[in-house]
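Subject: Small ribosomal subunit protein cS22

B.,
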Amino acid sequence: MATISFLIPPVPSTTKLTSLTNPPKPTFQSLKPSTSFHHFSKLAHLPIALNPKEPKRLFAVAEETASAAPSDEAARRLYIGNIPRTVDNEELRRIVEEHGAVEKAEVMYDKYSGRSRRFAFVTMRTVEDAEAAIEKLNGTQIGGREIKVNITEKPLAAVDLSFLQSEEVQFIDSPHKVYVGNLAKTVTTDTLKKFFSQKGKVLSAKVSRVPGTSKSTGFGFVTFSSEENAETAISSFNNSLLEGQHIRVNKAT
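Prediction pasted inline below.
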């Protein structure tokens, strides 16, 4: 018994045993009819507030939908290269529409000479239409020229694009200008300028590029301070070798 009395401490004299065996029952107080409930209207949003994952999921879905559009358009946009200069937007559309629905066909023209740059962009209605056009048209001939058809290049980073825009702005146009064709893809604007500076005073030079990319279109322009220098360049460099390829040099129109 001594052991038991040690384990169970004695009940303080100030506490009645009845309070332990018969605890008081809880009491409830009803609200008076006059009690106002207007402040409970703020709880109407609780189902959303208590489930924060739902709004986040909705945001994620919206974000995925927004990001899907640009990638889908990029997968439907075709680059068509080496087309004849006589092919315009309508003729190109008719050719491509034989293999799928076309939303837009746009031949690129040089802003100085007004001549076709021998390439175009075509946006197909669906990705399947784009894939079918590539399969059927890539490597075929239009007007005796073998064309290249593929998905357009990925855009450059902003810093690279700014550099190319700066290169375009720095180009000095002149009535004494020559067109240089069949350029190797490795030829840069500086290479072109240094090469033609061997036979005359070059004002400016530029390699034409596929819009929004660093990819050369295979031709460029060089401007001179006089007509005599331009004529000398044509007679000296037409059909000459530049980085492994025979270039074509003639008067830019």
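DSSP finds nine helices and twelve strands in the chain.

T.
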